[in-house]
Amino acid sequence: MRRTKAFTLVELLVVVGIIGMLAAMLMPSVVAAVETARQRICMGNLKNLGTAVHLYRQRNDNRWPWILHVTSDWSAVATGTNRDRDPAENPEDAGERSITAVMFLLVRDGLSPGLFLCPSDEDAAEDKSVRWDHDGDPATPWVYYWDFARPGNVSFSWQAPVRKGEQYVNGLSDEEAAAIIMAEGTPASADPDWQPLPMAEQMSREDIRHNMSRNHAGGEVINVLRMDTAVSRSKRPDVGVDHDNIYTASNRKEVGSREATSLDLAEHLSLRDAFLIGPVGDPNNP
């Protein structure tokens, strides 16, 4: 009678242990590879958004995507529009502004809403309806769709309006090709109580991450889109034209742009001060 060879219990446990050790050794590499792939998709989405912006301008007399609401006393206010009112019909009652309404102009221009998502942003989800109107009726004409259904349909931030006297303008000019117009969502999107720290050449990694978008690994890296459609990756937020923190605003030029710590829209006086906001509408009232 032939006896079949079989693993003993000890041998089986040794094999299982070795497999477990190999899996534990390989897991960080697999996680890192997945995150790298997500970052590349995120950069690709930003690149496509940059191309879409330029195509939009070609079809709209070289104008940037922009909604400038004027109140009943004819004073210009921050960009965007109320999520459930047509600003053309309700100029005196626009409500809080949404920076995502500006991005939604690209959706109205034919862009897929999925491009506004970063795969690493676990709190974001595509707007499947691709429409948002004032009465919830699917039969409402397209002209009434002004914004994404919610801020969580967008993973990126957008250049805030620049204050000129008592008015706000879009703050975008072809003179600054290196200016950043979009990037990962502001840290305030994940933490409404977030306050920026003054930037410095030498800072702890923890302090730097405090100033970064939370999209990728809790602040390890951000992807940015410049006016000339160039997309790059950074491990610091102070990558504006003047090495300023792209998520803050400041008119305190005497202390240097790295010192900028303001979230006050009224202090955004120059394109060189990048100041990206979103997907929340107002950095002072997330």
Describe this structure in words.
By secondary structure, the protein is an alpha+beta fold. It has one domain (13-277). 24% of the residues lie in helices and 9% in strands. The chain has four helices and seven strands. The strands form two sheets. The chain has a five-stranded antiparallel sheet, covered by helices on one side. A hairpin with a 4-residue loop joins β5 and β6 (231-234). The longest helix has 51 residues, at 9-59. The radius of gyration is 23 Å and the shape is globular. The N and C termini lie far apart (79 Å). Residues 70-85, 91-96 and 281-286 have low confidence and may be disordered.
In short:
The chain is built from four helices and seven strands.
Question: What is the topological layout?
Answer:
Elements: H1 9-59, H2 100-108, E1 156-159, E2 162-164, E3 167-169, E4 180-184, H3 187-190, H4 205-210, E5 222-226, E6 231-234, E7 276-277
Antiparallel strand pairs: 1-4, 1-7, 2-3, 4-5, 5-6
Features of this protein?
286 residues, two-stranded antiparallel ribbon
Count of distinct strands: 7
Overall 3D form: globular
- Structural class assignment: alpha+beta
Low-confidence residue ranges:
70-85, 91-96, 281-286
End-to-end distance: 79 Å
- What percent strand? 5-15%
Biggest sheet statistics: 5 strands, antiparallel
Provide a count of the helices: 4
Run of helices and strands = HHEEEEHHEEE
Lateral strand order in the biggest sheet: 6-5-4-1-7
What is the multimeric organization of the chains shown?
single chain
Average residue-wise pLDDT: 76
Overall helicity: 10-25%
Number of domains: 1
Rg estimate, integer Å: 23 Å
